[in-house]
Design goal:
- By secondary structure, this protein is of the alpha/beta class.
- It has one domain: Aldolase class I (TIM Barrel), CATH 3.20.20.70.
- Helices cover 45% and strands 15% of the residues.
- The protein has 13 helices and eight strands.
- It has an eight-stranded parallel β-barrel, surrounded by eight helices.
- Helix 10 links the parallel strand 7 and strand 8.
- The longest helix has 17 residues.
- The radius of gyration is 17 Å and the shape is globular.
- The N and C termini lie far apart (38 Å).
- The mean pLDDT is 97.
- The chain binds 3-hydroxy-3-methylglutaryl-coenzyme A and magnesium ion (MG).
- The site of 3-hydroxy-3-methylglutaryl-coenzyme A has 25 residues, from helix 4, helix 5 and strand 5.
């Protein structure tokens, strides 16, 4: 089992999409550039969704056009439909993310269509991404629970995972959108998904920390064989269509965990602590990272 962990930093997208105040393009650009300099191989940089639905992400094209790119870094963007894909292509994204759900009710609230309709909508996006030589990732929201339907049956997660794999996804995200899942559940879901694809190279854990379970859930996923995780500097984030859900697991906390486990990520924890404090300062909030705040306090 590899000791290398790929961390996808999602603060510029998942982190900022839920902020009440519009974060200036220049701040988003600086955030992405500082994250790339800290060593992230993959950064979720923008969303090409309806600005009426998610106004915070309306400047995605500008963000993508302005960032100085680091060679080798993958800059991903969310694309719910062909319109979003065309914008992603024009913006020279390296990876596009189609995002569905394992819950019908959440699918309707988030992207205004049923699960089956979403897969049909993703088909041309996936084909176009493959034809353009782009990486394709598929995100499965509410894989551990739904704000409208409660606990999600494992079969529903595996079903959407299989459909996304058939579309040609290089990677599948098992996303706990509202942060309700616990470790035993993660173990069960990951083992079931591991029956249909390779956990170590094609599956990621995307955990929100609403109930404080994200680090435990990452350990469970690591034990199951998962080697890709999403996290957000300063624990920023949430989903506008999942009331009460807090941010993603904080990147600082994940990097601190990995160091203790003897696992590598190639990311400079010290630099990430500074980025988290800087970004929280910009937003006028306290960073939601226990490790980040402790390490920052030690420095000062
Ligand atoms: P709709 O209203 O059903 O679609 O929305 P439509 O095709 O009827 O279009 C409505 C309007 O949106 C039209 O404009 C379109 O032109 C425009 P109007 O005529 O009203 O002026 N439009 C677009 N504009 C820009 N870019 C586009 C685009 N598509 C249509 N790509 C739609 C369907 C999917 C567009 C809408 O529901 C939407 O944008 N939803 C976005 C939801 C979202 O971004 N949620 C947050 C991200 S998911 C997440 O956070 C979960 C994740 O982190 C994993 C986890 O934790 O679970 C990934
Ligand atoms: Mg999320």
């Amino acid at each position: 089992m590899s000791d290398h962990i790929k961390i996808i930093e999602v603060a510029p997208r998942d982190g900022l999409q839920n902020e009440a105040q519009f974060v200036e393009t220049a701040i988003k650009v600086e955030l992405i550039e500082r994250l790339a300099a800290a060593g992230f191989q993959n950064i979720e940089a923008a969303s090409f969704v309806s600005p009426k639905w998610v106004p915070q992400m309306a400047d995605g094209a500008q963000v993508m056009a302005t960032i100085q790119r680091r060679p080798g870094t993958i800059y991903s963007v969310l694309t719910p439909n062909l319109r979003g894909f065309e914008d992603a292509l024009a913006a020279h994204a390296d990876e596009v993310v189609i995002f569905g759900a394992a819950s019908e009710a959440f699918s309707m609230r988030n992207i205004n269509c049923s699960i089956a309709e979403s897969i049909a909508r993703f088909e041309p996006v996936a084909a176009a991404a493959k034809a353009a030589g782009l990486r394709l990732r598929g995100s499965i929201s509410c894989a551990l629970g739904c704000p409208y339907q409660g606990e999600t049956p494992i079969a529903a997660v595996v079903d959407v995972a299989e459909r996304m794999l058939r579309l040609g996804c290089d990677e599948i995200d098992i996303a706990d959108t509202i942060g309700v899942g616990t470790a035993a559940q993660v173990t069960r879901v990951m083992h079931a998904v591991g029956e249909v694809t390779d956990l170590s190279t094609r599956v990621s854990g995307h955990f929100h920390d609403t109930y404080g379970q994200a680090i435990a859930n990452i350990i469970a996923a690591l034990d199951a064989g998962v080697r890709i995780f999403h996290s957000s500097v300063a624990g920023l984030g949430g989903c506008p269509y999942a009331k009460g859900a807090t941010g993603n697991v904080a990147t600082e906390d994940v990097l601190y965990l990995l160091r203790g486990q003897g696992l590598t990520s190639g990311i400079d924890l010290d630099a990430v602590v500074d980025i988290g404090q800087w970004m929280a300062g910009n937003l006028g909030i306290k960073a939601a990272s226990r490790a980040g705040n402790a390490l920052a306090a030690k420095k000062s």
